[in-house]
Amino acid sequence: MPNPRTTQHPGRTLRERMDQGVVAAPGAFNALVAMAVRDAGFGAAYVSGGATSVAAGVPDIGLLTLDHFTRVVREVVTGSGLPVIADADTGFGEEEMTRRTVIEYNHAGAAGLHLEDQVFPKRCGHLDGKALIPVDQAASKIGWAAKASLDCSGGDFIVCARTDAKGVEGFDAAVQRAKAYVEAGASMIFPEGLATADEFGRFAHAMEALKDRRPYLLANMTEFGKTEMISLQRFGELGYDIVIYPVSTLRIAMGAVTRMLAELKEKGTLEGQLGGMQTRQELYAMVGYTPGTAWEFPV
Length: 299
Fold this sequence. Notes:
Layout: H1 10-20, E1 23-26, H2 31-39, E2 45-47, H3 49-55, H4 66-80, E3 84-87, H5 95-107, E4 112-116, H6 135-153, E5 158-163, H7 171-184, E6 188-191, H8 197-208, E7 216-220, H9 232-238, E8 242-245, H10 248-267, H11 280-287
């Protein structure tokens, strides 16, 4: 699939794909995983703050820098050629840093980002003990992000507002915060920590009441969290436009790595693991490399 940056802004490409139906965006924590997402035929990819953090050996509590995140975003965009939605945590600071984050992510090739309304240091959205910043402060940061999108992309770059209010202040507060963020300029809303299909449906219905300002809706289908397992098709029926699978590829990869290391330690050979490995030929095919032939870096 060609890189959308060669034709139009990836934010516009992603909007077009969401307008055609619900889009699945598997998480990619490096360029090679992004290539696998591309080769599997998905229409978008996602960069998770949680996966980016633990891949660097630190917990998801806002320890990594904007430059670190931007590097991963650029690698995933280049590797996949897909429109990429990227986690920006709390914006790496207040309004001024939020603006810089939008501009840097846009320069890195992202289709958009999401900003959350937690107090720094943030916590994983499916953990208890979260705290929120005041709604007017969160709306101010969204407003700065929306203006930055206009300034750097003509508004094509997607500004998604994530609210963690459901697990802190309740469902109704999450709806009210989402409406305030749309009013501030968010073009997409991410209600984090909803538990059931019924809750997702009620939230989508509340957003429909905004009519001509109805935002795109993002759902987080993470494993081992507060959300029951819901299919992509069902999310589409409930009114969601894009579904992220933020840490799934990392969990699968690390599960396999752990099992492989245990077998190597026990048996001193990996002969029994060969059937589960990507072959040399498959790896070369994924990166588009033929030994002895000049390899061109993607545009």
